[in-house]
Write a structure and sequence with these properties.
eight-stranded mixed β-sheet; UDP-N-acetylmuramoyl-L-alanine:D-glutamate ligase; alpha/beta; about 650 residues; TIM Barrel; about 15% strand
């Protein structure tokens, strides 16, 4: 039994004279929360129920208590900032990229070339085995300095959150105390997530990250002096006991509440939480969300994110607790920590439908919401694509001109050279290329680390019903592709097709979409209406409706242009009924370049249209001249550059005035 430390003055004991906390809701402060502390790379074993020593593969995610909360609160609509340090290694760059993608400010995220970014290996073996190993020897996020707590930035923030791990080394303790002092001077509320990891305090074997509680008077001695300066304390039962210096929860709570005016949030796992407000003898609670657990790691960070969404927006403590409970419940059903956290839309959907829908976790609407949370909303990812993934057209042309198919790869290389000329001009436009691995493998290889977006087809050229270019090894093939590449599938469909043909097409497309979701890949569905069937807006809209009714949601639709605004409106109406955030990429159909201004104007009259994927209209004329010998290799790149720039200019000129 620990004896709690007597660190309270008589004035601090007299809580009756303390005023209740005025929560930080100054609308003039642009940042809601700055999160100080651990941000690391989590490597989660993909084999569920496997001991770490037998795990064969891992998924890489952003992790660390402070990093998780920065992402979690940002997803829930708060303006969050990360206050930490990363290495200049590839893993540090990964963390920066993830934070930027999640909308987390990185003004206070310093980097160091002398320290490696921390790694954590984690296993998932529900219901109660979750082994983890911290690789944090002198790591980057433990290099925060006292002078890094910028007063000017903290003055823009409503609250500073720090974690207990930040007190586990002398240098980090100094930096943490400096940050707390500066935050209070600048009028920030101060939040402690106790985040007690005995292994990080040297209290267990170095590889034992799974142990969550070891009684330690030394740790209590570090935590207790700070309690009087806090506005909000969040911890599990074990964490509250270590902060309070007692192995009895009631005594530990009493110590903390007598020492501080902070609101204390006690996380109780599947039972939800209790919230203790200063000056009140009654705790506040909210309903829990009992749910089948896959992974408890990160659940506490998700809870804190949900609670803080309410606390920093002035909601009642019951609402704060409700949002915390719901966010924690959603996260424990998913693989990983930060990527599993919910958007505010997901959170509300779970709360509103939890009791009525026993299969809430597999509800297609919830799954779609989470996929958009991870990948972003399609219209926020516009693409101006030079598409030269064509194969059968080139092969037929080679046969017609009695030329070897080796000409195809040679010509595609020349198209790529023209594309690079445009990309080299540092345009702000979101340029992208789409090329096949059959004739453009070297182009895909040379596009590694490129600043432009890259996509590759997944279908066998000309196949109907659709078949995969990789055979049946679809999951393995996509897993082997860079994660940032988008996946394009050319897919023939029409409401008037034979029922069996439609069913086969939908089954194949659903399989592809499911794998793209598992691997977090953006799917571009190129919907082609067979030429022997109607080609109007009604047919295209009906085809779109049937895809959504089959519970399939592509990231982008790639569809033919319609020059009649009333016909295009039919497609728009179908998208609005099923997916208001849908993004549309326009294909060119080998139309003359002069056709595009009117097409673009029509399609950009509605907000769904976010880009184009034009190919043969740019390169087919040059190809025919090249294959018959009237154009040389040296002339091709400049022609491609000129034609691509022409389409880009037409696209910009067709933008609605509001854009």
């Amino acid at each position: 039994m620990l004896v709690y430390l007597e660190l309270r003055s008589s004035s601090e004991k007299n809580l009756e004279k303390m005023s209740n906390l005025n929560r930080p809701m100054d609308a003039n402060r642009p940042f809601d929360l700055v999160c100080m502390g651990r941000v690391a790379v989590d490597l989660y074993a993909e084999q569920i129920h496997s001991p770490l020593e037998n795990a064969q593969s891992f998924r890489k995610y952003l992790g660390g208590c402070a990093g998780n909360i920065a992402v979690g609160t940002s997803r829930l609509g708060l303006k969050s900032a990360m206050f930490s340090c990363t290495g200049t290694d590839a893993m540090g760059e990964f963390l920066r990229q993830q934070l930027h993608h999640e909308g987390v400010d990185t003004t206070l995220l310093r980097d160091t070339s002398q320290h490696l970014t921390a790694l954590v290996l984690l296993g998932v073996s529900p219901p109660d085995r979750f082994p983890l190993i911290f690789y944090r020897e002198n790591c980057a996020d433990m290099q925060i300095r006292p002078e890094d707590a910028d007063p000017a930035f903290l003055k823009k923030c409503k609250a500073l959150l720090f974690t207990g791990t930040g007190l586990s080394s002398p240098s980090m303790k100094e930096a943490t105390l400096a940050a707390i002092k500066t935050a209070k001077e600048q009028g920030c509320a101060v939040v402690l997530d106790i985040d007690y990891r005995p292994v990080l305090w040297g209290l267990t074997a170095a590889g034992d990250g799974e142990s969550r509680f070891v009684a330690s008077e030394a740790v209590t001695r570090e935590l207790q002096p700070l309690i009087k300066d806090l506005d909000l304390i969040i911890g599990t039962e074990e964490e509250v006991m270590i902060a309070g210096g007692s192995e009895t929860l009631e005594e530990a709570l009493q110590v903390i509440r007598e020492s501080s005016r902070a609101t204390v949030v006690l996380k109780r796992g599947e039972k939800g939480c209790e919230v203790f407000e200063p000056g009140s003898q009654q705790s506040r609670t909210a309903r829990p969300f009992p749910i089948k657990v896959l992974n408890v790691l990160g659940a506490g960070d998700a809870f804190a994110s949900g609670f803080l969404r309410g606390w920093l927006r002035g909601e009642s403590l019951e609402t704060c607790a409700l949002w915390g409970n719901a966010n924690g419940a959603l996260t424990v059903t998913r693989h990983g920590c930060a990527p599993s956290m919910a958007s505010f839309e997901e959170l509300q959907y779970l709360i509103e439908n939890f009791d009525a829908d026993p299969n809430i976790l597999t509800n297609p609407h919830l799954l779609r919401l989470h996929q958009r949370t991870i990948l972003g909303k399609p219209r926020n990812f516009p693409l101006q694509v030079l598409a030269f993934d064509h194969r059968t057209q080139f092969e037929e042309s080679c046969k017609q001109h009695n030329q070897p198919i080796s000409k195809i790869a040679e010509f595609k290389r020349l198209v790529f050279e023209g594309f690079k000329k445009v990309a080299a001009e540092k345009t702000s436009l979101p340029l992208a290329l789409l090329v096949d691995p059959q004739y453009g493998a070297d182009i895909l290889q040379d596009s590694a680390y490129a600043s432009y977006a890259v996509g590759a087809p997944i279908e066998q050229a000309g196949s109907f019903p659709v078949e995969w270019l990789c055979g049946e090894e679809l999951h393995e093939h996509l897993l082997g592709r860079p994660s940032e590449w988008f996946v394009k599938v050319l897919w023939h469909f029409h409401p008037a097709l034979d029922a069996n043909e439609k069913q086969r097409q939908l089954i194949q497309l659903k399989r592809l979409e499911t794998i793209c979701q598992l691997l977090d890949r953006r799917l571009m569905l190129e919907l082609i209406l067979p030429t022997n069937l109607s080609q109007d807006g009604a047919a295209l809209a009906a085809a779109v409706e049937e895809v959504y009714e089959a519970q399939i949601t592509p990231f982008w639709w790639k569809v033919m242009a319609l020059d009649d605004e009333s016909e295009w409106q039919k497609v728009t109406n179908a998208l609005d009924r099923h997916d208001t955030e849908a993004g549309v990429i326009v294909l060119g159909k080998n139309a003359p370049l002069e056709t595009f201004p009117s097409w673009f104007k029509t399609l950009r009259s509605t907000p769904h249209t976010c880009g184009f994927a034009i190919g043969r209209s740019i390169f087919w004329g040059p190809w025919e001249s090249y294959i018959n010998g009237s154009l040389t290799s040296e002339e091709i790149p400049s022609i491609i550059e000129k034609n691509y720039k022409t389409v880009l200019r037409m696209w910009e000129e067709a933008a609605p005035a509001s854009l």
